Amino acid sequence: MEKSGGKGKAGKQGKSAKGLAQKKASTTRSSKAGLTFPVGRIHRLLKQWAFRNGRVGGTAAVYAAAVLEYLCSEVIELAGNAAQDMKVKRVAPRHLQLAIRGDEELDHLIKATISGGGVVPYIHKFLLNKTGKGKKKGAKEEATS
């Protein structure tokens, strides 16, 4: 005896096997926008951070994800170049520090202290020129005397 109205072979009530086979695969908002960063997660976090009414437009999350993805790719590319210059295959905090501080706009944007980043090497031009010229002139005078 079969009961009518229960789950059938397909496992879903009221659906035929053909209807299940033709079901669309869900596409994420990230893939629709052509992004790697998760638009849904950023939208959820934006709603949590919005204070009073928590209303955030859908395109705001896509825009924020695109901006974050661009900034991350920029920093990672510059840090990878710094690591490649030092003939190292792994990006370390030092490479991130050199990449961020070497770029004027990123340095202005990111004011954070990077743990293990060290300092950017800098010798004032006045010191370089003075020591270089002074030694050469002194060496010539000693040779002629």
From TrEMBL:
Gene3D superfamilies: Histone, subunit A. Residues 1-31 are annotated as: Disordered. Residues 13-25 have a biased composition (Low complexity). Signal peptide: none annotated. Its main location: nucleus. It is found in: Chromosome; Nucleus. Residues 18-102 form the Core Histone H2A/H2B/H3 domain. One of its GO terms (molecular function) is protein heterodimerization activity. One of its GO terms (cellular component) is nucleosome. The nucleosome is a histone octamer containing two molecules each of H2A, H2B, H3 and H4 assembled in one H3-H4 heterotetramer and two H2A-H2B heterodimers. The octamer wraps approximately 147 bp of DNA. This is Histone H2A.
